[in-house]
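> agent: user asked for a holo structure of the chain below bound to flavin mononucleotide. Plan: (1) validate sequence alphabet, (2) canonicalize SMILES, (3) run complex prediction with ligand conditioning, (4) return tokens. Step 1... ok. Step 2... ok. Step 3 dispatched.
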Amino acid sequence: MTLYEAIFMRRSVKKYDMTPLGNEVLEGIKKFLASINQLDGQKVQFEVVSADAVKNAYAPHYIFSYCEESDAAFANVGYVLQKADLYIQSIGLGSWWIGMPKPKEKKQNFCIMLGFGKTAVPQRKGEQDFNRLPINEITDVDNQIAKAVRLAPSAVNSQPWKLHFENGKVIINYFGRGIMKTLLKKLNKLDVGIATRHIEVALLNEGKEIKSITPMGKGNDFKIEIVYS
Ligand SMILES: Cc1cc2nc3c(=O)[nH]c(=O)nc-3n(C[C@H](O)[C@H](O)[C@H](O)COP(=O)(O)O)c2cc1C
């Protein structure tokens, strides 16, 4: 399955076969992780750990991420780890973004973790299985890019983004929704980065070339501009 196809089949996997993955598969995931491109000027660092490093672990493996405290740094973590999420699901395994459990040991600059392993539940069959806002609440253009963003995972499924299309450009604006928006400031910036990866994967699937991906502004005015040809 391609990363693009995985957008339409993935789910947050909350039930795992706790048997650790074989070394070869684990090494393949680590290698993929190390190859993922990051947003210009940003640097997220990772550590792949097993369940015993996490309080109340539910998956056999985790990717811990570490970054600076800024909107662009959080968005970069989302952008990078969402490629890992799509990759892991594209090879038939499960993964789950998780903000609540913490590493057992206090870790400086810890941002968020992604659990993964052998899934005990099936993938989705397609778009109809997702619980998401209708396209017209995120943009006024119904195309494959908007469809791919609509399915992006987000903290408490808050879907805090709106898309704006211009010639050769997609702008994803942070758009906090509902009563949770003040509580989710950091996670919602991760969400914007996650959705940015879905935009990129969908543009590449259409044969477009990505020219630049630039985070701009901060707080409620945070946005990311993607230029392509
Ligand atoms: C940044 C982020 C943090 C999340 N944290 C949690 C969490 O702490 N607990 C949880 O059950 N789900 C968490 N999720 C999963 C979301 O609730 C889930 O992605 C959303 O409901 C959409 O469901 P789906 O991923 O199955 O499509 C998180 C997702 C993201 C993107």
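> agent: step 4 complete. Summary for user: Helices lie at 3-7, 23-35, 71-90, 144-150, 185-205. The chain has five helices and nine strands.
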